[in-house]
Amino acid sequence: MPTYFRTRRGGEQVGLKRKGPRGVLITLEGVEGSGKTTQVQRLARLLREEGYRVLETREPGGTPLAESIRRTLLKSTGERMDPRCETLLILAARSQHVAQVIKPALDEGAIVLCDRFVDSTLAYQGYGRGLDVGLLRRLNRFATGGLEPDLSLLFDLPITTGLARRRHNNLEQNRLDRESRRFHTAVRRGFLELAAREPRRIAVFDGTKSAETLADDVASIVRRFLRRGGRTIGKPADS
Ligand code: TMP
Q1: What is the pTM of this model?
Q2: Cα separation of 122 and 27, whole Å?
């Protein structure tokens, strides 16, 4: 079994370092209608064909309890949800998801593909809602126990294109889809700023490209990432 040890900066717990083998956490991020969910499915299929053990999951959600929090979060009711309430619900779902699903899968050496994760909180609740991004980073660490994505794929496109796509595909409009154009523009800017800050972790893709072209682009980045680490992670031990 791999073991983890905690790292500290100025007395604060900042991360979990791993000793021994561990899986890989790849997150897919983007504004509404960016096509990331299709890419999760395609990437999962491709990696499975190549012999990797893959877990597909999503946020908010991924466990029965976290999925019920998701329904609460996305439902439109007459009551305006306070941004702090929204944030804490998302983080509650995340802590459950990490503890019950993501961490056990990583401990077993799987590649975990997660449709949205910590960067969505920084972009939506930070840049979109205007909550303090530094505080949100600390809250994310609290919720995840310090677990961070190894690689993040950001699908970027103009918000009008993304929202129109969702309408066109007759996808149900949830509480967040109905937010103002200003909100979605701030979220998009947030994602791009996060990517500029961490170019080694976050790869940006042009979400206006076709699903096929995007899948090829994603495959080449992910293959390079897995090769670069010289990893056999996620592959059965005898392969
Ligand atoms: P999805 O429709 O892409 O599955 O995402 C559900 C919604 O939840 C989407 O509008 C973005 C929002 N969300 C946040 O606001 N903060 C978060 O941390 C996460 C994970 C999602």
Answers
A1: 0.88
A2: 14
